[in-house]
Queue: 4 jobs
Job 1
Amino acid sequence: MDKKGIYLISGIVATVLFCIFSTELYEGMFTAPGFSDAMYNHSIYPLVATITAAMAWVGAAIYYYAINSVRFARWWHWLCVLAIVTILAPIVCYLVNSSIFDEENLSYAAEMVSFQGVNLLFAAALFVVASFSMRWWSSNCRHTPFPQ
């Protein structure tokens, strides 16, 4: 197996492990009485982790394969996509979380915002993992954000 394949498989394994251990990771970074129990009891941690991971990988794929432009192959362009994914993923997860809590008549608005602040960090980390996993096959952006 070549270096590119090892990077891809490593990124996929890291992402799958993140999704598997999402409850422990999220609760290790943020806990609140009542809120954490509701998140656990309604299996929202794995759902949020899956949404965040999917958005990070899709964002990286869009950058490296759909956009894939020489004019858009600078580190600050990559940083813009990172910022978009990092902001958009917690917003989507907040909306999903909110809808589930609304159905159950639970009110944890402040806790959900704080939790999504933690999710913002995971979204950024997953985007970096996805970027370094799939950038090698891009024809124009493979040197972004760092040269090989």
Note: The longest helix spans residues 75-103.
Job 2
Amino acid sequence: MARPVIIISDLLPPKRGGLADHTHRLANELAAFGPVTVLTSPGSEESSGAFQVRASIGNWSDLDWIMAELREFPDDSVLLWQYVPHMYGRGGVNRQLPRFWRDLKGIGQRQVFIAHEIMADLVPLDLFRRPPNFWYALNHRRQWKAILSVADAIPISTGRWVEEWSARRPAVAKKFSLLPSPTSIEPVSVPPDHAATWRAQNRLPANTKIIAYFGTLSAAKQLPWVIEGWRAAHTPSNPVALALIGGAPALRLPAELLKFYRPLGYLPADDASRALHAADLLTLPFVDGISERRTTLMAGLAHGLPVATTNGHNTGAALRRADFLALSNANDEGAYIRSVVDLIRDDARLTRMGAAGKVACAKEYSWPVVISRLRALLEPGTGGGG
């Protein structure tokens, strides 16, 4: 019988997108092996049936209240903190929690911290231009320093950060491990003629290639690069469509391109999966580079899609050499556009990359793999340190 797990998060499951969905799925997966409770903020009493939600923490600085809540659980419970530096307080700053973590360590409480993010950038000029931002960034570092000292294990969602912090803090490097964020969309079963049927249903010619963009719209995902890659790839004799799964902006486009623009908006999970199954290429030009924390990447790999993306400061060694990614420098739009054009015109390469990504997803990034790694860290003596 596995030890009880208390997932601590101030984001409410379930909620579309982001960490809340991750928390909900994480709780469901872990509940297959033992009792799981999500300790969170008021506003949701929803439970999947597999796990419990205790939405009772109204003030994350009220340590007596939090401790009283924890005393309601078995003494051998493991605390699994979902750590993101904009949680647990305004701007992600909670000056009380580091002391609380140390107190818990003092009484022998096992604590595992999943670091989805670590800290805001420290910009010296913010001391004068945006003092609150500077203060937040400083305190994020204080909180992270406390986590390094108290955690029994620190699984991190980005390989580059595991590399960086293992080098910066070799004394605690054994606490670090990679824990990718698996796909947010599970593949549904589709018939062999699905791609052709989907094109017909969406009024696209049968010979149309489809470039997909998946997820919410944000500056970090550089949609203008996606659009320019699509513009360059499309010709009337070799048409290429752009399908946006998530946001659905109205774009000013020439009439020829407008015929091949499909802003699908937010879709139910099964419909999103069907759209991904119909696509030929997923385009994700992140401003910071691709990383293992990107659930949109994992969704593409799970669906056997090759991915045109960027190599940036958050891209680790494993992804830099991945044969299922077409990488361009995150600062070079021209190189990215050329990458998209070259790839969408190379059927053999598309097939080869898509197959490689699907294999890699099953071996390294799937939910069963992630849960297996995490379960090993939740048990005593397996996470390093402590």
Note: The first strand starts at residue 5 and ends at 8.
Job 3
Amino acid sequence: MNSDTQKNNVDLMDFACRFFKSRGAALESGMDFTDILVPPDLARSLEVEELITVVSEKAGSKESDMKNRYPMQFQSPLLERITSLAGAKPTFLQAELKFEYIKTQGFDRLITEAFDRNRTKIRITGTGVARTRYLILTSLYQAQSDELKEGLMDFCFNLDTGALIPDMIEPLTHVQKEYPTERVLICSPKEIENIYDQINQNGKKAIEEKLSHFVESMNRRFKRDAGSLEEYYHDLTREMEAGLSRTGLSERLILEREEKIALIPAELNTKKQDLLNKYSIRIDFQPVAALAIITPCVKVFAELMSGRQKAAISLIYNPVTKHMDPVVCKSCGTSSYSLTCCDCMHLNCRACLMKGCTLCGGKK
């Protein structure tokens, strides 16, 4: 079993165990298996016994015929039912982060290391402790091509800035948290719309990076089959053209063959488009859980300068990642570590700056 397969098995086991725990089940873990005491209502919904054992694919393949044992593998009936229930009503949790110490200086160095400025100078004008909101959205993804790949992916957003925050999930596990019992709605409709836009913009790229071997496999198979098609139609064209030199062919038959030869390029393009549709990867996301976070942070107030132009901005120091959060491009809305500005001092990512700021049309 390769490392990717082993990791997928761990992800599926972790997903299943987190699901059961969130629904009130009692769990006891062992090597490659977890015993679960399932609440009666949940057991009926999942069509399982009240005492079951979920096992990794490797362990399950050895003893799959044993009663009450359910291997966690893609497309298994129990995993399908778990996914359906998890997606029907995403789990929502709120947490407030606590820190004994938060950085108060040294932001010049952090900004210099993090951001690309491209002839834009920055001057810090002040700092202040503030509070900000993050949302971690766990989604089930399906990457459908000639094969199907499924898994979980986390996206973290700063709700106040709209930025997609990288590398926040792992260090978050070591931060002290308090979980308020009273639920508070913290996402406005506009913020929710921005989250979906960000997932649509960044999710596909993130999945393709996560499933790089799968993407490479689909590309390789497309090139192989497209090459075989081109070779076949090349040989067919050459054979039909050679047949035109045979003696005794009527003008009508020659004309028909020439017409068929002329149609070969269009037929080849149609077949190649069919192959492209077959091996193209279509990605779908479905939210299954959300964690809303309120945390102290440091707001760094600064002034961007380019020539005689100036613009005031504020940046956020994230005490979880211990880095500066990215900013949001004013043209396309993507998150970036670029402080480049157009002639009117609108923040733009490098790609949008080359095309022209959508707010004013200016470049740099």
Note: The longest helix spans residues 212-243.
Job 4
Amino acid sequence: MRVIFLTSLIFLVLSGCTQSTSDSTSSDQSSTFSESETSVNSECGIVIENTFLKPIPFDSAEPVRVEAISSDLVIVTRTEGEQAGNEQLVKLQGITSSGLEPFKIQKGKNLIEQMAGFNGFFLSAGAGCETTLPGGGAGVVGQIFSSDMKSVNEALIANGAALPESGSCGGDQLAGCYAGIDVEVEISPLTISHFLWKPESEKDGNLVVLVDAYGVNAKISGATSSSKGDNGGPSNGYGATIRYPFSGCSYGSATLEFYDSQGRLVQTASGEPSIKIANGCSRSELRF
């Protein structure tokens, strides 16, 4: 497995990049996919040169290998034509990984490489559609499709591994459609039968949540703030001791969603997908 730092990776990519051209498109690619296939593999289409396109013009797609850096950032390596071997950093159009838990980002990276790692297709959002990354590197904006021309963007959204993002280069036109895609939720075999909400723990005065299930974590969406917990392991007869950076009162009324180590949703023993707290200032113990 190739292990490199992102900053070094970006430098190498940029130093070897050449602007893509239509000459790099495979000469027989247009005969590989019929026009009818272009209308069934993308729900939201694509925006090229600020023009919404559906069906998608796959005759201009470039065959590439794809390496995922995040669930919204990839490196494409062209495999045919004059640009064969050239690499380019690509920000995926209309989606973001910002705010996602690490396990969801990793899930997205795995999905990208499963769908398009060795045999994918790249469509640029158009000339001038470039992006600057937080680390200072630069890339272009576009979309990746699998070898059977399924949208990787839409698969990432459906699997909860990316979120819609408005912005330049067609993001505004795509985000609304992406927001309407149903997100598939994997259910864990673990369940929660016993739950305790302590607004102020003895350790630090902040919220601690205890549940009987082992190896789980929880995200709180509160009326005034949201946080991901930190599972410190079993204690006091519970399987998980999940601590938060604020007191229970800081969250007001709150909803907790629990996940196992593989990112699957952990339901209560009664089948509820989340636990709701009406008043975060009050101690609450529940059995299901």
Note: Residues 1-40 have pLDDT under 50 and may be disordered.
